[in-house]
Design goal:
about 30% helix, single chain
């Protein structure tokens, strides 16, 4: 008997390739919102309808509808932004958004607080810069992420080229985007074909990430399809394929869980495009369309079996995957300050707390980046850790870049603690509808208190991965944090511990549903032991496992034989 499809499957089926009645909803002057079904389709166009939850109750008492506004997200494969694009994005943040530019954990920008009437001109302006918002959200291939630091080797340049190629060639083909936002020709007759996605697209979102060992700065094992670039003699030999990663879970539902991707084989560069397309196609055909909580590729693999999935992939490709090549990851965060590339150009990585570019007091981050964009002749690279790289700088221009950075307070990375430089937080309240607790707004307060305890134990320079999430959905990849707080309710979190610094081991719950006092009381004696008992170079998560504070982890899904 056929399974009952989820409501969203019917919405997609009847949407006329993602059109729905979005145009009518945008034109309705009575409300700041659009229809419920259309909010689901709007995600495919790169936008979420939200409201200010801080004001929700007050507006209810005043008999006003919620203060609706829209979050808009760009599609920027590999996180590459030209100075010209940056200036346009900055202007849109100033003219239309409520809280500056925000760098996401998928190497792109979000604008929050855009009113309904400003949504179309904002998208049109992004399009004019040769960027887009199509498929930045929704049940499709999302923004393809890549190790961002350019020109460290020829392989880095080739890797970005592949991120851009996959993003372009595996994007939806519907003309609804041009019709709705760019005044394109309206569809007449039957909807145009979607050769990869079909009428109902994917069962759930799909993420591809490309990492170049020894840097796992994109958390490659958190991706539905992780691509591990293999360099041989300075050239890109190909990619190990890792399938089935994902961070999302639901509190109290053991049938949902975070999962690391599994390495299943190796393909050459010439085989990569077809391999990526067929992995997506199998998930399109096999994914759960009745229960969205179980619709990601990780659940498909656990339901069908990884061996069965690999066999089906090889059948569709018409060739067998090669054995995975050895690799080694030793670093997960960004590397701050100046680094020189193979071609002699320089790259400056700047820290942006929670990715939020705003002007606050002496820290005028938005204005500073604007000034950099006006004089910079290279490009900018956004990172999966919510930071920005001023990339491809000529040696003669370094002093001018440094002066702008210092004047605007963008040089905080020089003085910050190691845990602060490696912290990631999702947006959460007040705009995210899923948030159960604070995240971005809580990060400065909890960091200050953690830093006080770390300083007491002589650990301010110890790199520790801290991840905050307002809910278990996992946008900040909390399950890969050596320390992670996952929101349960206002002021209450699950404290998770024990991931490694290379992004190859999940953490686990150590204290459930606790407040700040309990979090600090739990961590302080662990910091004391870590300071006294750690081995040279041993990370905090590794120490907790080795010392017996945490039970040994389950068998890793990353085959040991391919970890050099």
């Amino acid at each position: 008997m056929a399974l009952k499809l989820s409501e969203l499957e019917h919405i997609k089926e009847e949407s006329r390739q993602l059109r729905g009645s979005i145009a009518e909803g945008l034109a309705d002057p009575v409300t700041g919102a659009i229809g419920e079904a259309d909010t689901k389709l709007l995600k495919f166009h790169g936008s979420y309808q939200q409201d200010d939850r801080d004001l929700r109750e007050e507006r209810r008492r005043q008999k006003l509808e919620p203060l609706y506004a829209f979050m808009l997200r760009a599609r920027l494969p590999g996180g590459v932004v030209t100075p010209a694009q940056w200036l346009v994005f900055d202007r849109l943040a100033t003219d239309y958004a409520s809280s500056g530019l925000r760098i996401t954990t998928r190497q792109t920008f979000q604008w929050h607080g855009i009113l309904k009437g400003n949504l179309k001109p904002t998208i049109a302006a992004i399009h004019q810069t040769m960027a887009s918002t199509i498929a930045a959200c929704g049940d499709v291939l999302r923004n393809v992420v890549s190790t961002p630091l350019p020109m460290q080797s020829a392989a880095h340049a080739q890797a970005y080229a592949w991120a851009a190629k996959l993003s372009e060639e595996l994007a939806p083909r519907t003309t609804a985007y041009h019709e709705l936002w760019l005044d394109g020709e309206k569809l007449v007759g039957e909807p145009e074909p979607e050769p990869l996605y079909g009428r109902t697209y994917l069962p759930r979102k799909f993420k591809i990430g490309l990492a170049i060992p020894p840097l796992n700065d994109i958390d490659v094992f958190a991706q539905d399809l992780g691509l591990i670039a293999i360099e041989e003699d300075g050239e890109l030999a190909g990619f190990n394929l890792a399938v089935g990663g994902g961070m999302g879970a639901t509190h109290g539902d053991a049938s949902t869980y975070p999962r690391l991707a599994e390495v299943i084989g190796f393909v050459t560069p010439e085989q990569l495009r077809d391999a990526a397309e067929q992995v997506i196609a199998i998930q399109r055909d096999w994914g759960d369309r009745s229960e969205r909580k179980h619709a990601r590729l990780k659940y498909t693999l656990d339901r069908r079996g990884t061996g069965v999935f690999k066999a089906e992939l090889e059948r569709r490709l018409g060739f067998g995957l090669q054995s995975a090549r050895p690799f080694r990851f030793d670093h997960n965060g960004d590397r701050y300050g100046w680094l020189q590339g193979q071609d002699g150009r320089w790259h400056l990585t700047l820290h942006v707390e929670s990715g939020r570019l705003l002007d606050r007091g002496e820290h005028r981050l938005l204005s500073g980046m604007r000034e950099l964009a006006r004089v910079h002749t290279g490009d900018f690279r956004l990172t999966c850790n919510q930071n920005v790289i001023v990339a491809n700088v000529k040696a003669a221009d370094r002093a001018r870049i440094d002066a702008i950075v210092a004047t605007h307070g963008l040089d905080g990375y020089r003085r910050q603690s190691a845990i602060r430089r490696h912290a990631i937080a999702c947006v959460a309240l007040p705009t995210c509808g899923l948030a159960m607790a604070e995240s971005e707004r809580y990060l400065p307060a909890i960091l200050e208190k953690l830093e006080e305890r770390l300083a007491h134990h002589g650990l301010l320079d110890a790199p520790i991965l801290l991840r905050l999430s307002g809910c278990p959905n996992g946008c900040s990849r909390p399950y890969l944090g050596e320390i992670a707080l996952v929101g349960r309710a206002p002021g209450r979190y699950d404290l998770r511990l024990g991931a490694d610094f290379a992004g190859q081991r999940l953490n686990r719950i150590h204290r459930e549903n606790v407040d700040e006092a309990a979090i600090l009381a739990t961590l302080d004696p662990l910091f004391e032991r870590y300071a006294a008992e750690r081995a040279p170079g041993e990370g905090f998560g590794d120490f907790l496992v080795r010392s017996g504070v945490l039970a040994p982890p389950p068998v890793r899904r990353i085959p040991a034989e391919v970890v050099a």
